[in-house]
Amino acid sequence: MNALEVKDLCVRYxxxxxxxxxxxxxxxxxxVGIVGPNGGGKSTxxxxxxxxxxxxxxxxxxxxKPYDPxxxxxxxxxxxxxxxxxxxxxxxxxxxxxxxxxxLHPFHRHRRTDIARRMMxxxxxxxxxxRLVGELSGGQFQRLLIARCxxxxxxxxxxxxxxxxxxxxxxxxxxRVLEGLHREGMTIVLVTHDVEGIQGKVDHIVRLDxxxxxx
Length: 215
What we know:
The chain is 31% helix and 27% strand. It is an alpha/beta fold.
């Protein structure tokens, strides 16, 4: 069974066809890079997988079934954090919110904190727990979003441009984190413009421009 199976997916925004006849498969444990031009439908593809935008036609299955957000199988890091960074909340509190997860499996406070701390350590921000999110650099904030996503404890991770607009050191740290998760068997789908940066780090690259150009 594949972790992700997309068949003949079409997505239309009013008169604009964002995706047309897209088909691709991601095996369990694979790290796949999705590349292509701006407006090529990369972000739309991830949102369609998560049911965040309606498909005009086609099917999407996650671990053999239609995606159900209550299963906590998929973690998603959007291209830009939707969090208002001036909001007075600490790094630890944000990471803990991932452990809450919005699913059907509530966690006791001490377990949420333990999961959050482990994920913060994994992405290299364990020393920043008491800081307010507004005090973080762009790279630190991006790593926090990944930590929050991992606190859901997903089986598959979808990331939309996780290394965009961050410094080279943070970018390499993010790649090291993803490579480590890949070695541990997590399925990862990575949307990126950094084609050179992912060479040798992914199992294969899918080129997308409204449709799959090659796979």
